[in-house]
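Re: [ENG-882] Designed sequences occasionally contain unexpected residues at chain ends

Forwarding the minimal case from QA. Structure tokens:
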């Protein structure tokens, strides 16, 4: 029996003036080194007022036993339940240009039907290109520029962006399947993956979110302020540099990574494939495990200095920008 993708979502009142607007999407649950994608999604929701234009059925899509929602117990009774939300939000940039952001937990079930549901919403709202973003671990030191790898449904969309000219098989994800289905439907879709030093992959790393923001705004023309992320990135880099200065062992490890990176980059540029050799491959740089342990401990102790300012996530009920569909 053919399943109806429209059963997976509830669409709010028609959003005016969104024809051709880009749809950004970040679904939490797949790889996201440095929490780069989450930081960018939260930055957008925190920076701009927004309204929810569509909600997806999380009861069907999410495995609650693997990602249990929070509940509050207070003085002998259950007081509240915080259900997960997978929703499409409408925002306007500083120039009042509309764009949309699909965010929430990555579905555990019905990926194909979910992809068809997103295509259905995009068609009903006459949306423009879809753009995803996340962080991936890379065998590089934090002292080198962060690369951003792009992939797209059409070659023309990749103009001016770094790409990974390799054929590989990797574990699938709902965002990747969505991009594939968008391309099969003849719709434009583009994705960005920022390369995060793999010893910082488990840390909160705002420089990676800042790099993603630059790629997203370049590809869409959106006018999004970056001062908050830039300040958080500067604080993080200062904290890391303090750790390097305070530890001769860490400084030595960073220098070794720099030498390996520079040598690999020089060789790969000669071969015309600079990005491929920088992806972390577990055993390629064993000394990074020692470096990661020291940095993660240091950054955890300075977490308030490295997180972006402001509360994370979208506003709750009753707060500005948190209106329901």
């Amino acid at each position: 029996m053919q399943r109806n993708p429209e059963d997976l979502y509830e669409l709010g009142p028609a959003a005016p003036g969104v024809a051709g607007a880009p749809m950004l999407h970040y679904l939490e649950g797949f790889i996201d080194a440095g929490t780069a994608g989450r930081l960018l999604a939260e930055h957008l929701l925190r920076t701009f007022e927004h309204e929810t234009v569509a909600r997806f059925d999380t009861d069907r899509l999410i495995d609650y036993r693997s990602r249990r929602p929070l509940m509050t117990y207070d003085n002998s009774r259950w007081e509240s339940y915080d259900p997960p939300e997978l929703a499409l939000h409408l925002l306007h940039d500083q120039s009042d240009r509309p764009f949309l952001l699909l965010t929430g937990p990555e579905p555990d079930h019905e990926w194909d039907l979910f992809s068809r549901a997103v295509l259905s919403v995009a068609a009903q709202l006459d949306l423009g290109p879809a753009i995803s973003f996340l962080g991936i671990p890379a065998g590089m030191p934090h002292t080198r520029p962060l690369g951003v790898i792009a992939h797209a449904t059409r070659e023309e969309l990749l103009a001016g962006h770094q790409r990974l000219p390799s054929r590989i098989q990797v574990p699938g994800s709902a965002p990747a399947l969505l991009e594939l289905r968008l391309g099969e439907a003849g719709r434009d879709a583009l994705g960005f993956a920022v390369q995060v030093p793999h010893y910082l992959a488990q840390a909160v790393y705002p420089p990676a979110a800042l790099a993603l923001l630059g790629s997203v705004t370049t590809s869409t023309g959106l006018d999004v302020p970056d001062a908050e992320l830039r300040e958080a990135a500067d604080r993080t880099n200062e904290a890391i540099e303090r750790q390097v200065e305070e530890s001769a062992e860490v400084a030595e490890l960073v220098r070794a990574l720099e030498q390996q990176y520079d040598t690999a980059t020089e060789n790969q540029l000669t071969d015309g494939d600079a990005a491929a050799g920088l992806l972390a491959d577990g055993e390629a740089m064993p000394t990074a495990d020692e470096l990661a342990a020291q940095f993660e401990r240091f950054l955890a102790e300075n977490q308030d200095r490295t997180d972006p300012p402001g509360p994370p996530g979208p506003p709750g009920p009753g707060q500005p920008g948190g209106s329901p569909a």
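QA comment: On inspection the terminal residues look reasonable. The chain is about 35% helix and 20% strand. Proposing we downgrade this to a documentation issue.
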